[in-house]
Amino acid sequence: MFAKLFKHEAREMGWQLLLYLVLGLAVVFASGLLSLTNLSFLSVTGTTLGTVVSIIIPFLVFITGSKYYYQTTYGQRGYFTNTLPVSSGIVLGTKSLWLFIAVLLSICWSCLALTWVIFTQMAGAAGAKLSFGDKFVAPWEAIGKLLQGAPVVLIVFIIVTLLLTAAQFVLWVVCFSALANRFGFAYLSTNKAVTISAILIYVVYEAVLALFTFLVPVTLHITSLAGDAKAKLLFGAILSRTNEGTGIFLPLGTLSMIPLLIIGYWFAHNSLSRHLSLR
């Protein structure tokens, strides 16, 4: 049943996600070609257009994904979900997993798109005497060198950051959707209930995260030299890390996001169980 429900989620929202990413990819790729011309108007237009589209596409996925989740779980489009002979855990798991995949894909797409925009702009500006073909090859070579020279610890850190970012967004969506459904006026004014609950959940999450970050003034400092990664703990004020030079700094207080995410998922599961039992 988990696989069937997941396929249903993919059919319902997958085509829309694919459309956003493909159209955005076409626009960003074309904008990069404009940047390679090194003509003032076309170059500025291409860079601006590519940057704007690279940022807008993830937000479109975030908004449509959030709206789809609430409507198909608690809203008017929830008949299929609410009448399935499955537990709330399966319903929440499939919907959360699909939303996580969609958000993660859109974030990765945005990072790659912005990388393409930046490197094409640099190639267009630096290669005034080069042919258009050489300028087109230059960004790919620069990106390849960047990936080859990146330390493994940095790549792992980026991957973990992307996964946690997508997970935080998904938990935020399922939590504020669950809270909005508990408001007595949710059926009369859905947008109002969702907006209020989204702001409340966001403020509480950021406040608790900031509190623990400063209550635990310990930072993990990771450096990589000649392929060897070294880690050490920095005690004292978080801002003292500026005296340690370059590297990756991870305030250990931010690890409080993990229990926060667990509590948020429990709250969403409890609310969905209550909602399905009433149905």
TrEMBL record:
Source organism superkingdom = Bacteria
Residue intervals passing through the bilayer:
40-63, 97-119, 152-181, 193-216, 248-268
Q: Does the keyword Transmembrane helix apply?
A: yes
Q: Does the keyword Transmembrane helix apply?
A: yes
Q: Which UniProt keywords apply?
A: Membrane, Transmembrane, Transmembrane helix
Protein name (record): ABC-2 family transporter protein
